């Protein structure tokens, strides 16, 4: 039976290098399996969800080619290269900005100018409605205090839900304390003030599951867990302990940074636990795969773009790949229909 293939990618700032590296490996395996060096991951998924850095990845994977609008513009390799290029620039520490903001104490830690320019360079004037597949990108609307989901399939129905992809990517990753809140406008010129979707769904896989349940696909209408395949990618497992002897006397200032980390990792773990049992109840347990590699020597900080840490993030991803070849082959076998495989 054909299954709806879902890809979900967590938030995590520069740690997005980890899922980007793994997706590049999966795409290479797809090309080997199909015998087509031009095969792209977007050809073999039906729905993509992302939060923050995962939202940027999701949008990039689904961005159409200018020359051939039905095909993906970027390969997974090109997207990984962009993460190295733009991620380092976005989180570059500017001394004048640091002094002006007292190192992020009285204003956002980073200027969003470079961030905006980077998103514009990647996505140009592409609209959400033009993305190749149905998708869901998270953000949080601060004026009405509610979750906001950017979806390609709804954007195709009404301009009220259509936005520039560059704005969607920026809003989804406007992490509090790191970047100022983002105000973007729909195609009908209605504005929305937004912050990072990671404040409520750093792991957007459950949001993806709920959204897919409502949709009609080529092989199945309103699928359940019994006819889904879901790959959920994390940005590295945070294992830094919080010692009671230290945190028991924390005040507001000391708790801000660890609370953000707890919020992100706690949400990711909870969603994974829930989906594991949903797929198990649908007698399809093997079709839910959660990948959350160890960070090993890499920092858990989402803005550490030192050369040493970029290398450590890459090493963590490559170590996972080297130790889990069978798992990755299994993922590819579930993504690529038998008729597309190289005979």
UniProtKB/TrEMBL annotation:
Keyword Hydrolase attached: yes
Domain PNPLA intervals: 7-209
Alphabetical list of Gene3D superfamilies matching this protein: Cytosolic phospholipase A2 catalytic domain
Residue interval(s) of motif GXSXG: 50-54
Regions that span the bilayer: none
Sequence motif: GXGXXG, positions: 11-16
Active-site residues per Swiss-Prot or TrEMBL entry: 52, 196
Record keywords: Hydrolase, Lipid degradation, Lipid metabolism
Residue ranges annotated as motif DGA/G: 196-198
Family in the record: Belongs to the patatin family.
The name this protein goes by in its record: Patatin-like phospholipase family protein
